[in-house]
Amino acid sequence: MNMKRHRLIIVSNRLPVVVNKNISGSLEVKPGSGGLVTALAPVLRNRGGVWLGWSGLTTENPRKIGNLLSSLDDRIGYSLESVTLDENEIENYYKGFSNETLWPLFHDLIDHCKFKPEYWKTYQSVNMKFAQSLKKIIKKDDFIWIHDYHLISMIRFLRELGVNNKIGFFLHIPFPPTDIYTRLPWRVDILGDLLQYDLVGFQSARDRRNFTSSVRTLIDKPKIEGKGQVINIVRKTRTMRAGVFPISIDYKEFDDSASSKPVTHKVVTKEKYFEEQKVILGVDRLDYTKGIPERLEAFREALRRYPVLLGKLSLIQILVPSRRDIPHYENLKIKIERLVSEINGEFSHSGWTPIEYHFRAVSRDALLSYYRIAEIAIVTPLKDGMNLVAKEYCASNPEGILILSEFAGAAAQLKSGALLVNPHDSVACAEAIQRAVHMPESERKVRMKKLRKNVHRYDIYWWVENFLDAAFASKLSEFSLIADYTPLAEG
C-alpha cells in the first residue's frame, strides 16, 4: 500500500478543539478531550490531513468559525473543517439518538434507551449534513475515515451524493449481542449502512462476533469469508471487510511526559501528602457505563473485610464532567457523591480520609502525576469499547498494578498482566484490591513489564497503519499483520 498519495480525512461528531465565546464575546479555541482526540490528534500531526466535525457552537456565523479554525492549521499540523448544528439537532441527534438510543443500547443497557422517531429522523438529517459538508472538501484520492456511532449513516448519503472514495468506519464503543441489538426499531437500516463501508473496524473480537451474528440474523444470505483479524462479508455482488483493531495511545509520549520535570514536581508534592498511604486511582468520565458506584461499593467492602487497610490505603477518584444535561448523568453524579460521603463518614479518622474525590477535568500534567503516585489503578467499567485510561496508566507508571474489568475491551490485550475482575462482584473486587496492596514486588514488576510491552508494541501508530493496511490491501493474504497480532486471542 502506498498511502502517500492518499490524503487522510477524519470525520467525527466533534472537532479535536472546542470553540467558545469568552466573557468579551470573542471566540476562543481550547483543546478537546476524550479518547478519540487522544488517539487521532498525534496521527494527523504526524501524517497531515483534514479533520471534519462540529465546532461546539450553535449560533455563531459559520464563516467566522471557519476563519478562526484556518488560523490554527500551521500550529496543529493539519486542517480543521466545521459543521454547523442548531439546538434542535443537538437535542435530537446528539443528546437523543446518539446518547439516549445508541449509546445505552450498544452498552447492553436497554432500560436506558429511548426509541423516538424524531430522534431517528434528526439523526438522518445530521448525517446528511455531514456528508454534504465533506463532499465540498474531498479530492478523489482521499481516504475517508469516519468515526463512531454518531455518524454510522453518513456513508449512505455520501454514496447518494456520488462520492466513490474508499471509506472506512471505526466503532469506538462496543457492538451489542444480537438479542439486544434487535430491540432497535431501525436495526436493519443501521446494519445496512455499516455494510456499505469498505472496512468497518471494531475494538475487540467480541464486538465483531456480535456484529456478524446480527448480520447473519437480519440480512438475507450474507457470506462471511476468512478468519483472523480481518474477514470479508459478501452481500450480493458487494464485498466489505470487518476487522479487529484495538485502539491505543502514543506510548512514547506518555512515557516521556510522565518523567518530565513539571510532572515530577507534582509527584513529589503529592507523595508527601500521601506519605503514609498507598494510593489506588480511578479516572473516569461521568457515565453510567463506567461502573463507578460498583467500584465504590467494592472499595467499601475491602475496607470492611480487611481492617489492615484502614489508614493505609486511599482511593483517589477523578470524575470528569460529561453530559450533565441528560437526567441519567445528573442522577448518577448524585449517587456517586452520596456513596463517597457514606464511605468517608463510616471510615474516616484523624489524619486519614479513605476517598479523595474530584469532580472536574484535570490538566495533562496533573493526570500524569496521579498515574505516577498510584501504586494501583482500578479500571472497572460495566462495559467499554476499549478504555484508554488503562493503557495510559501502564505507559506512565512502570511499577504500578492494574485492576481491570473483564468487560473492558482492553481486557483482551492486557489480561496477562492485569488483575481481571467482574465489576458486579464486590467481594471479588475487594479481594483483588487486597491482593494488589500486598502483591510481592517481583510479581508486580513481571506483570507491569508485560503490560507496558503490549501497549508499546501495539501503540496508536500501529493502530492507524494496521487499519489503513486492511483498507488498501487488494487481498486479505496481503494483510501481513494478521498473524503478528497475538493479543487477539481471547480466553
What do you see in this structure?
This protein is an alpha/beta fold. The protein contains 19 helices and 17 strands. The protein has helices at residues 35-47, 62-70, 73-76, 87-106, 117-135, 154-160, 178-181, 187-194, 205-218, 251-258, 261-273, 292-305, 327-347, 364-373, 388-396, 411-414, 426-437, 441-457, 460-472, and strands at residues 8-14, 17-21, 27-31, 49-54, 79-83, 143-147, 167-170, 199-202, 223-225, 230-235, 238-244, 278-285, 313-320, 355-359, 376-379, 401-405, 419-421. Helix 4 packs across helix 5 (117-135). The radius of gyration is 23 Å and the shape is globular.
List the helices and strands and how they pair.
Elements: E1 8-14, E2 17-21, E3 27-31, H1 35-47, E4 49-54, H2 62-70, H3 73-76, E5 79-83, H4 87-106, H5 117-135, E6 143-147, H6 154-160, E7 167-170, H7 178-181, H8 187-194, E8 199-202, H9 205-218, E9 223-225, E10 230-235, E11 238-244, H10 251-258, H11 261-273, E12 278-285, H12 292-305, E13 313-320, H13 327-347, E14 355-359, H14 364-373, E15 376-379, H15 388-396, E16 401-405, H16 411-414, E17 419-421, H17 426-437, H18 441-457, H19 460-472
